[in-house]
Amino acid sequence: MFTSTLGTPLGQLIIRGNEEAVFYIGYGGDADQQPNAITDQAKKELEEYFSGKRLDFTFPVAQPGTTFQHTVWKELTKIEAGKPVSYTALSKRMNNPLAIRAIASANGKNNLMIVVPCHRVIGASGDLVGYAGGLWRKKWLLEHEANMTGSGQASLF
């Protein structure tokens, strides 16, 4: 396992991967750094994200999960920055309107924060709900992306 860390306005990000892909990005304390080219590329691209220069990521990612979880995670990557969607809207986009709880559960099992943008899913009333990194981080990320895209969505929060 290879690890890079990145200091961000939201705290320390831990980036873990292997020879083929990054499989974990999350908030945490100090970690022994033993980077490789993939975790270093992820760190560089995430630095660009936090400095307002990047919204899309090119480094390889992989995380274990069920077919359904992978379907949800793929759909999350289609949510445009600055335009959060509700769990209800996401379930309709996936042609599975009764699966709101299952979608929320899969969203919560995402191990690739920011890159698989689980923070872009909000409650039906526009409320900030359910983010493993804390709602204050979710709010910051949504406002950051709204500023980068000029969408004005930050005014919702």
Radius of gyration, in angstroms, nearest whole number = 15 Å
Spell out the helices and strands N to C: EEEHHEHHEH
Please identify the structural class as seen in this structure: alpha+beta
The average pLDDT score comes to: 92
DSSP strand (E) fraction? 15-25%
Helical amount among residues, as a percent range?
25-40%
**Uncertain ranges:** none
Distance between the termini: 38 Å
Global outline: globular
> Biggest sheet, open or closed, and with what strands and sense?
3 strands, antiparallel
Helical run tally: 5
Number of strands: 5
Order of strands across the widest beta sheet? 1-2-3
Topology of helices and strands:
Elements: E1 2-8, E2 11-17, E3 22-27, H1 37-50, H2 67-76, E4 85-86, H3 87-93, H4 100-108, E5 121-122, H5 135-149
Parallel strand pairs: 4-5
Antiparallel strand pairs: 1-2, 2-3
Question: Could you give a short description of this structure?
Answer:
The chain is an alpha+beta fold and 157 residues long.
